[in-house]
From TrEMBL:
Similarity comment text for this entry: Belongs to the glycosyl hydrolase 13 family.
Positions of the UniProt region annotated as Disordered: 465-494
Transmembrane segments: none
GO BP annotations, alphabetical order: glycogen catabolic process
Keywords: Glycosidase, Hydrolase
Domain Glycosyl hydrolase family 13 catalytic as annotated: residue spans: 163-567
Native species: Microbacterium lacticum
Claim: Cell wall biogenesis/degradation is one of the keywords in the record: no
Lineage: Bacteria, Bacillati, Actinomycetota, Actinomycetes, Micrococcales
Protein name (record): Glycogen operon protein
Length: 695
């Protein structure tokens, strides 16, 4: 059922767009549909089991502002229905009075055949309270990006009937892994209802990732258990709500990857399933001749410069946040949502501001993927207050430092650059995000669903995507990866050991950097996709996480757990603000840098590629936690080196917390005196807690 959206809180023309979709009442159901150009709108009711058998047709009447409305006892819980919309012909209109269309506000959907769906009336009120939200502060957040199916399909502790499902994700066995790892939020690849593109179907492939939405309110039924699918959309929604409830009970937030930038209707000539038949001119970006302006690379772009499209996005977010209970959203190709009527990006676009200012979304985490493929589409650092962003500059610099620079040095004896750029990313990317937004605007990641896994990043120089049906043309060509001497699988013990240390260096950097870390599911124990860096079309063991591990994978998992634990325990690693050289900033980390001799870094050392060893000294300025100070030693060269720990006032000693050198974490907590020398055998990290002198 549609929830009431008070006009005083709606930023797009007040009450005109309130209560779209179906609302149930004493006189049956009221359906409200917006179409600014339609000449007629009909509600079509179907038999519960034969979704081609029309049992009733009810005309809607215009009630002003482009809204069409009807109240009928034909609408009840479980009713299967569609829309028929007619309107004028013209270059930007594509009305077809015979087409059966999805209500954009439908809370439940059932498929009929490719490109055809029926909306279903459901009661979205939870059947029991969703429970208190974890409300994890952003500085304490560790995100775990996962796919509902991929995470649970092969988990031996999840009952087979729950494999690959929402219920499987909410199962105690899955949650135990997440809590033992220490992550605070799962970021789920799209769970809005979606379908596979015809091109993939003809190749025997599928849209596995789900970035092809057909409905922004209905959950994808393919991730529900067989029992819920059999029971219908109401049961599917309940399963999603229970998943959220179970994760919340374990202290884990749920963030949804949402795709509001385009839909599954693809380009002109693609499916006419919803927007295209309701009001093509209002919902999609077009030239005057009706051709689409595609800034997404997916055939169409939703036109959020129109109030109807922008309000629909906002209403969808409010629904998932308050009736399903999710804690945040990651916006796919977010610049598309911030493009105005002139198609240019504006960080103060009304929709972008409404998303972070709407009181119904208060406290939710908002994360932008800050690029699309349109003109001016790369906007990393360009979003406003209230937004965090995927930081591709961080990803690229960290990969370069530990992988492609090392590869270069093997061939040219010296890496191409010094440590300065890497240090900036380690300390929170202050050259990308303003002081007002601070380091928590940066969502740091080294891998994501799109691209190489962590293990493949250190095992392949080039992509291996032949199984995708595009002759290896798809997927990124520039990966900043390094195979360390052999392409793919090898039995060479030296290469394997070097790869393992490279993974530890990458994980260590990610989890010890200022900002919000995002770990990709399976990277904590080195999963592989056999060199495929664009596995969007494989719903198979290639993309399902394998929970049977070799000993080295258990060792890597132990490192990941230790690093997350240390991040939680040391606030100096997770500042909320950037420090200022002239004044104390609460909840910042005051940073000093030293070279391998324990001396202050000289200006020329920052850019000298022959010197890629530094010591990162971060001291917290706490508001709510005990004072804390850490020293992270970074060595970005394969040549062994001796490093002298700095002799500093107020520092009595250095407690060893973690090193990337051993195969399994050393938790002996050895204490070293200032001026002690540690030997690093090439490319390594070593973290210390700096112990204060007694007063």
């Amino acid at each position: 059922m549609a929830s009431s959206l008070p006009s005083e809180s709606a930023p797009f023309q007040g009450s005109v767009y309130d209560d779209l979709g179906v609302t149930l009442g004493p006189d049956g159901g009221t359906l409200r549909v917006w179409s600014g150009a339609a000449s007629s709108v009909e509600l079509v009711i179907f038999d519960d089991t034969d979704l081609d058998w029309i049992t009733a047709v009810v005309p809607l009447e215009p009630v002003g502002g482009g809204v069409w409305q009807a109240t009928t006892d034909e609408l009840a819980l479980g009713t299967r229905y569609a829309l028929r919309v007619d309107g004028p012909s013209g270059p930007r209109n594509t009305f077809n009075k015979e087409a059966l269309l999805i209500d954009p506000y439908a809370r439940g959907l059932v498929p009929v055949r490719r490109g055809q769906w029926r909306a279903v009336v459901v009661d979205s009120t939870p059947d029991e309270p969703l429970g208190p939200r974890p409300e994890t502060p952003l500085d304490r957040t560790v995100i775990y990006e996962a796919h509902v199916t991929g995470l649970t399909k092969r988990h031996p502790g999840v009952p087979p009937a729950l494999h690959g499902t929402y219920a499987g994700l909410g199962h105690p066995a899955t949650i135990e892994h997440l809590t033992a790892l220490g992550v605070t939020a799962v970021e789920l690849l799209p769970i809005h209802a979606f379908e596979t593109e015809p091109r993939l179907l003809t190749q025997g492939l599928t849209n596995y990732w789900g970035y092809n939405t057909v409905g922004f309110f209905a959950p994808h039924s393919g991730y529900a258990t067989a029992a819920s699918r059999e029971a219908g959309p109401q049961a599917v929604l309940r399963e999603v709500q229970q998943m959220v409830r179970s994760l919340h009970a374990a202290g884990i937030e749920v963030i949804l990857d949402v795709v509001y930038n385009h839909t599954a209707e693809l380009s002109i000539g693609g499916p006419r399933s919803s927007f295209r038949g309701i009001d093509n001119a209002a919902y999609y970006r077009q030239h005057d001749d009706g051709s689409y302006i595609d800034v997404t690379g997916c055939g169409n772009s939703v036109d959020t410069s129109t109030d109807a499209a922008a309000r629909l996005v906002l209403d969808s977010l409010v629904y998932w946040a308050n009736e399903v209970g999710v804690d945040g959203f990651r916006f796919d190709l977010a610049p598309t949502l911030g493009r105005g009527a002139d198609h240019a990006f504006d960080p103060d676009h009304p929709l972008l501001r409404a998303i972070v200012d709407d009181p119904r979304l208060a406290g939710r985490k908002m994360i932008a993927e800050p690029w699309d493929v349109g003109l001016g589409g790369w906007q990393t650092g360009g979003f406003g207050a209230g937004w965090s962003e995927w930081n591709d500059r961080y990803r690229d610099r960290v990969r370069n430092f530990w992988l492609s620079d090392v590869d270069y040095a093997r061939r040219a004896s010296t890496p191409p650059v010094g440590a300065g750029g890497f240090a900036t990313r380690l300390a929170g990317s202050s050259n990308t995000f303003s002081a007002e937004r601070g380091p928590l605007a940066s969502v740091n990641f080294i891998t994501a669903h799109d691209g190489f896994t962590l293990r493949d990043l250190v095992s392949y120089d080039v992509k291996h995507n032949m199984g995708n049906g595009e002759q290896n043309r798809d997927g990124a060509d520039t990966n900043r990866s390094f195979n360390h001497g052999a392409e793919g699988p090898t039995d060479d013990p030296g290469i394997l050991a070097t790869r393992r240390k490279a993974m530890r260096n990458l994980l260590g950097t990610l989890l010890l950097s200022a900002g919000v870390p995002m770990l990709t599911a399976g990277d904590e124990f080195g999963r592989t996709q056999r060199g495929n860096n664009n596995a969007y079309c494989h719903d198979s063991p290639l993309t399902w996480i394998d929970w049977q591990h070799a000993p080295w994978q258990d060792d890597l998992l132990a490192h990941a757990r230790r690093l997350v634990q240390l991040r939680h325990e040391n606030p100096a690693l997770r500042p909320r603000r950037f420090a200022h050289e002239a004044r104390t900033v609460p909840s910042a980390s005051v940073i000093d840098w030293y070279d391998e001799h324990g001396e202050t870094m000289s200006p020329e050392r920052w850019t000298n590629p022959a010197h890629r060893t530094l010591q990162y000294d971060a001291e917290s300025t706490p508001e709510n936690e005990a004072p804390n100070r850490i020293l992270l030693v970074v060595h970005g060269n394969e040549r062994p080196i001796d490093v002298t720990l700095p002799r500093l006032d107020r520092v009595a000693g250095y407690t060893s917390l973690w090193s990337s050198v051993p195969e399994r974490p050393d938790e002996s907590l050895a204490v070293l005196a200032p001026g002690s020398v540690i030997a690093l055998p090439g490319t390594a990290l070593h973290l210390f807690r700096m112990e204060p002198c007694s007063e």
